[in-house]
Automatic annotation (TrEMBL):
Cofactor field: Zn(2+); Cu cation; Mn(2+)
Protein name: Amine oxidase
Entry's transmembrane regions: none
Classification via InterPro entries: Cu_Am_Ox_Cu-bd, Cu_Am_ox_TPQ-bd, Cu_amine_oxidase, Cu_amine_oxidase_C, Cu_amine_oxidase_C_sf, Cu_amine_oxidase_N-reg, Cu_amine_oxidase_N2, Cu_amine_oxidase_N3
Amino acid sequence: MAIAVPQHPLDPLSEDEISRVAAIVRKERGDARYIFTHITLREPAKEVVMGYFGYDQKLPKITEIEREAVVVLIDRPSGLVHDIIVSLTKNAITGWTKSEGQQPTVNGLEMLEAMEIMKEDKSVIEECRNLGITDMEQVCIAPWGIGWSDIKGKRWIQAICYLSTSLDDNQYAHPLDFHPVYDVNEQKVIDIIVAKRRDSRYLRPTIPMTNHHYLPEQLGQEKLRKDLKPLQIMQPEGVSFTIRGRELAWQKWNMHIGFNYREGLVISNLTYKDMDGTVRPLFYRLSLAEMVVPYANPYEPHNHKMAFDVGEYGMGFLTNSLKLGCDCLGSIYYMDAVLNDLNGDPIWKIPKAICIHEEDSGLLFKHTEYRTGKAHSVRSRRLVVSHIVTAGNYDYGIYYYFYQDGTIQFEIKATGILNTAVLAEDEAAAPYGTIVAPQIDAQHHQHLFNFRVDPMVDGINNSVAETDVIPSEHPVGHPDNMVGNGFRAVTKVFNDTDEAQGVANLEKHRSWKIINENRIHPYAKQPVGWKIHNPSPPTLLAKPGSIVHERAIFATKNLWVTKYHREEKFPAGYHVYRSDPDHKLGIPQYIKGKKNVRNKSIVVWITFGITHIARVEDFPIMPVDIVSIQLKPTNFFLGNPGIDVPHDDKKTNRSCKL
């Protein structure tokens, strides 16, 4: 299906482009005392791309777009950060700044490098011997971000240590009680923190040695279920979507599929063809912009655990190479990804990084006319664009679903293995965790995701409205509420960034809409729009003033609206790693100055997620916990946009009666 086409302005950098950019920087720099943390596309401004494709006739027509890259270097061992802009069009560096006291995303290769050095460190070896471990091949080290400390500019990580009884053992069944602290730039262990016991007669716990396996070869074939018959998905005439380069067309949808080191999968230039054939612009850019996983245990070293997986590690760096028939089922189209290594070379290749396929999703609509007995039902099909990342112990399936009725769904399936800590035999996990196996504590935590929505709903200027549903203000018996059943929707449109902050309210059935006030629906007499449906709206539980609260202010509310700015893509800030809570990076900076966000080019930030009170059933491997949000057309079309989907029957889908 893929054919050679001219480059799209939002296409990720190619291998050749990454090499060219690195060569330009090396020539200017001249020495070798640095590493490349990332080389990625500097996306053109929104109004430039919209003018290029003609999404808004009020914008000037653009015929050429400069191709640019963003490069981040770190000096070793000082840790000084260099932010560089390279123009591939001009074959030259066009911007170079130094960021004092900040640290960017940790390249995955830095983590692998750290693991090997820590295992050979004398202090780590001695700590293992104190626990009776003499074979360092049995020790597993999981590098994590260390949260924050008052020593600025240091690129430190913490390590959570485990014992492994064999190559494929579930190491999280054997947690150790100490955490090395490692300086990535100086490449050495600088401290070891031993977790103190609480309410225990033991100074240090023994290592729990019982295995808790989950791989089928470890469980044994005799323990696997025998009553499952094959389930096959077939499309004998092929798929219904087409791909041209990285542009994807399916039914009435059209979009661009992007990928970068930080957000991973990015959907851009999303349009929908109306029933009269008009192509209507909907969303300029959709991405998982940040997430935070704060843990509840308040004692050191566990209170260092506040992972910002997007900004600290990068979803692109963490992306899996997918396996046909397992991760993706059916007729699959894959897209590969390429990233740079620490030398700036494009050798970090991820085959099958992005999965694209179709799947049945139940009924689209149905009605049975009781007078005649005639029933009409249409099955729904959805397009799926996805990738899967592994962030240490957790795995996240990240899915974009596009439906035939115009609905867009962004879903995350959280799975993998609980982050575990060791307990002494007489020690309790409560109130901050659950004992999921003897001496194994799974600490309570949250997974709070921030979905960045950059809209272009029928044009570049949009607004956001908040709607509450309230009972009638009139008492029962009033002429306007005679039997007391009245209720109504009350809507207000946000004017500025001070107003445009929202928290879910289930009692008021609160919802938000992205609207275009310049386009009034002919029937509803309301602005055309897209409703935000967020059924999973927890917010940050950490208290104001806490380190994680001040670093992750984006997670304290379910909705923010900011004025579009080309460089404002990340709600916790650009350089997140060990960010200073006093600086309040990201959204707090974007909303300063009470900016006007009504009928402007805007960005909407949606927070949703999971508050995970661990269960025994989540161990040794966690069944998927699914959370999602939806964007649904609201007074946008002239009717059900899926009404023209043809009826399916047993001849086409080969259903049979047993």
